[in-house]
Queue: 2 jobs
Job 1
Amino acid sequence: MTRMKGADIIMECLRKEGVEIIFGYPGGANLPMYDALHKYPDIRHVLVRHEQAAAHAADAYARVSGKAGVCWSTSGPGATNLVTGIANAWMDSVPLVCITGQVVSWLLGRDGFQEADITGITIPITKHNTIVLDVEDIAPAIAEAFHIATTGRPGPVLVDIPRDVQQATCEFDYPEKVELAGYQPTVVGHPQQVKKAAQLIAESERPLILAGHGVVIARAAEALREVAEKAQIPVITTLLGIGGFPGSHELYQGMPGMHGMYWNNIAIQEADLVIAAGMRFDDRVTGALKDFAPNARIVHIDVDPAEIGKNVKTMVPIVGDVKNVLQQLATQIAPGRHDAWRQRLADLRRDHPSIAIPETDRLLPQYVIKKIYELSGPKAYYATGVGQHQMWAAQFFWGDNPYSFVTSGGLGTMGFEVPAAIGVQFARPLDTVWAICGDGGFQMTMEELALCTEYELPVKFAIINNNYLGMVRQWQDKFYAGNKQSVRMFQPDFVKLAEAMGITGMRVSDKAQVASSIEAALRHPGAVLLDFQVEDVEDCYPMMPPGVSLSDTIDQPRIEQPDYAR
Amino acid sequence: MSGRVHTIVALVENRPGVLNKIASKWRQRAFNIESLAVGPSEVPGLSRMTFTVDGAAHDIEQVTKQLYKVIEVVKITDVTDQGTVARELALIKVAATKESRSAIIEIVDVFRAKVVDVGPDSLVIETTGTEDKIDAIVAMLTPFGLKELVRTGRVAMVRGGAPTVTAPSADGAGRHHRSAGEGKPKLGSLI
Ligand SMILES: Cc1cc2nc3c(=O)[nH]c(=O)nc-3n(C[C@H](O)[C@H](O)[C@H](O)COP(=O)(O)OP(=O)(O)OC[C@H]3O[C@@H](n4cnc5c(N)ncnc54)[C@H](O)[C@@H]3O)c2cc1C
Ligand SMILES: Cc1ncc(C[n+]2csc(CCOP(=O)(O)OP(=O)(O)O)c2C)c(N)n1
Ligand SMILES: [Mg+2]
């Protein structure tokens, strides 16, 4: 065994964990780590332009690759800049390992230069965090970090390491096995519970599967499909469950909830059985809880026991990894048909074409997004921002590429789109990656465009430019009597901005140019930014106003008005 | 938060920051911790904590589930509805003159408390018992002039042979790291 510096030990640990890429930014407190980097050419370091982007890129990389994302920063401002990204990963259960440099240990608690109590700050937004005060503890702390981040319900883990600890030396001994008395996730479903669930399925006439992010996280799409097909149960996916079931499948119904399809919200209210697989009954999905799925018995499959009964009363809880549980379930259920129920859903869908795009020559945001999906082929990946464009991106995603839709759900972090798309492109270097951006969100992280030139990333950016903080504008129009405040802002010339960053920019304001510009972007070998000058005031429907039940969802108000006019 | 007082006992790894993490979970759900007692347990490296909190059973269950998610929490149980022995210790400093001293000592005797320090104008009294008993003796002593009061908060233990909360692994200790090359535990690589 050899003696090594703490910083080298950090790198050795990352190598042991099979880390291929670190998103990071240097500063005084993590310079020993940068000093060690060149000795590890197999581990790529990506220099972001703001630490928030390091966390988001690592987050998106993790979602698509299925591995833990790794990011690091210096102490103080570097660490606090990570916070939004960590909170994002926390809310969406994304495995992230964050390593922060810290001031030298003897200055801790004395307001040393660039000291921030980052372990204190991140307690509520990490699955676990720790500060390492002895070089001997670095390897165990990092081994634990990866173990905790990636098992059970995944989440971000932060390891804070003072500079002197990075410089101290000890023998490197990597723990191959981590055992934590207080952490033993249940991963296999209780057979008795699985049997009960199968029984409920057999008794059900109007069953629905509500599939969530857990299905994506567990890579359980195949298992889900097996269950759905065998028992012929229609499948609805939450915003984060998108990509967990093939969009083109005849059993697929799209998204429920606040901006989900009307037919789904009504179906949930009519269902006699809801099988919730790896989803946590977020209020955007359920609407008013007391009126949620009033006719349904509920089976809830979740790896986190704290989710069981948190929001919704469950008849059959099954704690376990959703992939295991669905596989177990598949062996227990009998083949079934639910023709009358499926006919009912088809009728609802026919009568309430929630996501029909109105006929018009104007450039509608939905139209742009739909065209992007149509033209980008079956293997493309998508990262979105937050707002109206995000909801349309979700509504119009009916693709089959599993795990290809990356979005910020729980925290709803504007600015996620740009670094997320970059993270996805690093995970999928050969595939098409679209960033579907809001003009507002884009301006929060557009500094990261430079990475596309520096690292030769062919990301395609589509700014759905409605010249508004559109989602907020819609709320002001609907719920604040049209008092539009602080939702319009000066915009830079995005095309010039792209050029300044070394990538190709194009402005599109005519419906007739949409397809050709998308095709041109797809043909172009490098990064492209398309600034789509869409309709300013276009509301996103369906919409369930805050506080009401799913039954009160307002469907596309214009469906009765084919002569779309405003 | 309304409901009744719950007694929660937790076995936790004795590491820096643990109390902060646990407190954070209660705080996030706006619980007020009525009392908290912490000390070493029978297992080296593990501490036992006793909380009392006021709340509805459903909310308490939710928080204990959340507390379980703190990695250093090895085990946590709401023992409110189990038969428990629950005690609290108090030290009471009360003003005492020549004239009042014997009256105070009479009260101390009635409550089976103890005088543990005698000063020229004060007595320190130690008492152990349920919260009600301590409330009662404090009420009796207050008229003499209460100078200082310190209470430990409740500690609780389930009656009978079964332990209140134990670590799931046989040796009980907090964490193990082995270089045995056995690979990661079969906790399911979920991602
Ligand atoms: C502007 C905006 C509008 C929104 N509108 C909607 C909307 O209309 N409809 C909608 O659906 N969402 C909407 N959302 C998203 C919403 O806020 C939630 O983020 C989302 O519904 C959560 O989805 P989820 O429960 O599937 O995923 P998560 O929140 O990620 O929860 C995943 C669940 O799966 C469990 N899990 C994780 N791994 C496993 C495993 N291996 N095995 C078993 N279980 C596992 C976790 O414990 C957790 O309970 C919106 C968000 C924004 C920003
Ligand atoms: C960091 C952050 N700040 C504020 C919000 C509140 N918010 C939600 S949607 C939205 C508007 C987004 O505007 P834009 O990116 O242009 O997207 P659009 O809704 O117009 O498609 C805002 C401000 C948020 N989600 N995230
Ligand atoms: Mg906008």
Note: The longest strand of chain A covers residues 96-102.
Job 2
Amino acid sequence: MRKTLIESLFRGKLTEPAPHLSDEEKSALIGTMNRLAQRRFGRSLAIRHVDAGSCNACELEIVALNNALYDLERFGLKIVASPRHADVLMVTGSLTHNMGAALRLTYDAMPPPKWVVATGDCACTGGLFAQSPVCIGALGQLLPVDLHIPGCPPHPAMLLRGLITLISCLGDVAHESGRD
Amino acid sequence: MNSARWEDVTTNLADHATTFIAVWGERNDESGAVNLAVRRKGERSIEIVSRSAPDSHYPSVGRHHPSAILMERVIQDVHGLVADGLPDTRPWLDHGFWPHSRAGTSYNFKPAFGPGVHQIPVGPVHAGTIEPGHFRFSVNGEIIIRLEARLGYVHRDVLGLMRGKAIDDAATLVGRVSGDSTVAYAFAFARAVEQALDLAVPARASALRGIMAELERLANHLGDFGAICNDSGFALLNIHAAVLRERILRLAALVFGHRLMMDFIVPGGVLRDLNEEGATALKSGLPSVLAAFGRLVDLYEKTASLQDRVVGTGRLDPAVANLLGCGGYVGRAAGQDFDARRDMPYAPYDGIAVRVPVFNSADVDARVRVRIAEIHESVRILLSLLGTMPKSSIRVALPNDLTARSGSALVEGFRGDIFAFVRVCGGRLSDAFVRDPSWFLWPALEAAIEGNIVADFPLCNKSFNAAYAGCDL
Ligand code: SF4
């Protein structure tokens, strides 16, 4: 054990530099967040993830965000267990009817202000399952979506870009009335 | 449609002369039919028996064989066919929320009685970034006396959506049954279609399929190894194992162009070839990942506090593993010496002597050790495949066949054997079925957890790592 620990100390960190985001890229991702108003919000967000009908590949890439190479927490972004601690609801999957009630309850349990991120093609548009008789389809049909991160599954770097965009926009502005 | 044979085969299941693979339903307008797939111990082919379900009834398989019960509950929900004699007729996928639901929204969990017994409901939304499912624990103090899993939350009707699709479009859907096994599902589906069409795949395509399948196994086993250690409270190993998993995924992305290698295996061959640069990256990258992993295994074995958590925890009675037909690391940790790559060989494994690790202690530790051995074996197989890459095309066109044909295949995914069945006609899919190994892992987990403490559930659950999406479909 000592050997592993000492080597890790001297090897230098594995974590990679943060992705650079151009203004165009930010505005493309955040296109739907026009309900933001001017007010400060801290540069830290707690994220609650819910699988609402995913094939589980989107989850694998969200989990990868916590590995040493992407190191999500250095951006002030933390995945939390309870919706009561969460600012952001990150939803994956094609929104099955069977998950509708649980997703709604999770959203309602989050204290305002809160934001919703549709993660992966399934959540963004219903994806390949949009026509399924047992799916509601795009997340937007059930909850107000603030950010769409496309991909099947989205690359972890893409997930990072999306979440950094969210936090950097919230750094300058916060939510308008009605939801906070 | 053979009802005498149906009786014969289902009775044999009760004698354990055969291993149950799956039972699934079909419905064409008013008439229904059911299909049963089994493999006889020691034989290399799958037997499929079909029979009609007059007036929507057929004799239950589950009354002889417990592994069939959940599947027959699905047949009841999705196809409206009733299994006569089925011991448990509660709905499974139908939670009462579909526009066409037949079931109500309430659900009766199995009762547990006794002084001090109480229930802990968990889910469908769990604390971690995992799939949704509900667990109902009946506990006495800290001890779990009964666990009942209720799934179906991520039922997307993948099979229904595949029906009528062009073969290639159906392959895209099958790759999203369970994302962590996307390669294995595409592989099983492709082989079933190829069997139906009597199509031989170029040798290079088979070798590439093997490379993708082993990379997928490696990535998942490395991830599981770390996650199991993490759930025992030893985060350090998880951090290191997650980096190794990431290295495998990046190798896959570098070599083939997608981290999870989705949509590359298609009926007729593969869509991505391996160039010199990719082969070199794998030949140097894999041994270095393995060397780093060896250090983690050393730490796993020598950390007493970790061993204390995993040894003896979540023991699955090997007799139960045998009865249920558990495959993969769960079965092999409990004395079940079966691996489709060796025992029902298919290309490219027919040219490789696959070594199959088997343990008998059947606890969390044994399930970790099967994975450790398989990580080594996967790297060996990969290097051997890379050393003998045949030169040929990587895909052949599917024949434009207008007759209705069917085919099936069993492919060893990282969790265990995945079964695929197809009916094709004129380049389209008239019916499809896939069975995840997790169908047998969930009932096995319910059995293994009895008598363990509640706090050990996440650890046991992770060591099984059964799929939700794979069963919910
Ligand atoms: S977007 Fe793709 S990867 Fe994500 S859940 Fe849907 S099918 Fe799976």
Note: The radius of gyration of chain B is 22 Å.
